[in-house]
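Protocol step 4 of 6: structure prediction from sequence.
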Amino acid sequence: MVLPIRVFDDPVLRAVTHRVPGPSEELDRLIADMTETVRHAGGIGLAAPQVGRSERLFLVDLTFMMEELDEEAQAGFPLQPMVFINPMILWEGPEELDFEEGCLSIPGVRENVIRPERIRISYHDQAFTKHTIEAGDMLARVIQHEYDHVEGILFIDRISPLRRTMLRRRLREIARGVVETDYLIAAHQRAA
């Protein structure tokens, strides 16, 4: 089922999330719905707060990148979508990259964000098997963006105060639901 996406100024986007206690049918259903939602919206990542759930859970779906890789690289690429339950970033590399980001919860806004180029993260997958991986490039960036969501942080928090000031009017419009998207947003935020 495609879920409505919460947009800027919804309190759930600013709350630090709670640990997922363990596998369950409800969790499996939520992951399936989030997968359908992110694909329907044309996104590459989605965190539980973005669908109104305050749980330490996010998905990364870089399926589009698979088409650009040769067979050997595809064989080494993680199965998509990747499910991250109770994630914890353990290490951030010293080198940083500046790259333009957007967010399904802040439609129509794209800004450059500086993030570490490489990270190490531990998490549980959907079967609640624990993993620790090191990621770089686009995978590291998307993981960090989604990880921020489970910490109550939005990508606009990582841009300069001047840029945030310049976006103030647009962010107010998004909060009021004055926004056009190709995907469903939470009804309580739509303009009356």
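Step 5 (inspection) to follow. Helices lie at 25-41, 63-66, 71-76, 137-150, 161-175.
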